[in-house]
Design brief:
Elements lengths: L8 H9 L21 E5 L2 E10 L3 H8 L5 H4 L3 E5 L7 E6 L7 E9 L3 E7 L4 E10 L5 E10 L3 H4 L7 H20 L1
């Protein structure tokens, strides 16, 4: 005799883990309009927030601002705290204003000064990957591009409960632009 038992959430998660797809970057830097406006993009297997803006400072100045962990909260209005060293292979602990009761443990997985950096958190069930890309211009300015892609087996279940990051991305880019341009003017 065969009996059928209802599937528990844990069983469903284990069953779905085998077919999980993670997306590390939904929108490459060159595809994001350079207009200072944050965008939200939903695809079948990923959710992405992105922004690109022109900064009147060379990439090394923008990079110095972006990688100075101890000074992060002095210029970035979207971050409550950042503990740790922003360096290759290191893990930083970040608390954002969007989720002030949660500490994100972000691993710096790519660090190509002064061009590209990646922070990530999670795994196959839910992965968040943030790319910071600096594109130099002939006139000495920099295009700053930031994107964060969420994916994984649990994305479909939790996408609706994730905060809308467009305002936070807009504020982050504006804050970075202001700080880098101020440093470059000195």
């Amino acid at each position: 005799m065969t009996t059928t038992r209802p599937l528990t959430l844990a069983t469903l998660l284990l069953l779905s883990a085998g077919g999980c797809t993670t997306v590390r970057q939904l929108r490459p830097a060159g595809t994001i309009p350079v207009n200072g406006q944050a965008e939200r993009t939903r695809a079948s297997k990923a959710l992405d927030f992105s922004i690109a803006t022109r900064v009147e400072a060379p990439p090394d100045v923008v990079w110095a601002v972006l990688t100075d962990g101890p000074a992060f909260t002095s210029w970035n209005s979207t971050v409550v705290s950042l503990d740790g060293t922003i360096a290759p292979g290191r893990t930083i602990k970040l608390v954002s204003k969007v989720a002030p009761k949660r500490t994100f443990k972000l691993k710096v997985t790519t660090f190509e000064a002064p061009r590209h950096m990646v922070w990530e958190d999670g795994g196959a069930m839910f992965l968040g990957v943030r790319h910071f890309t600096l594109l130099p211009a002939a006139d000495g300015s920099t295009t700053f591009v930031m994107s964060e892609t969420y994916s994984g087996g649990m994305l479909g279940m939790i996408a609706g409960s994730l905060p809308d990051m467009t305002a936070s991305f807009g504020a982050f880019a504006a804050d970075l632009k202001r700080q880098a341009e101020s440093r470059a003017a000195r």
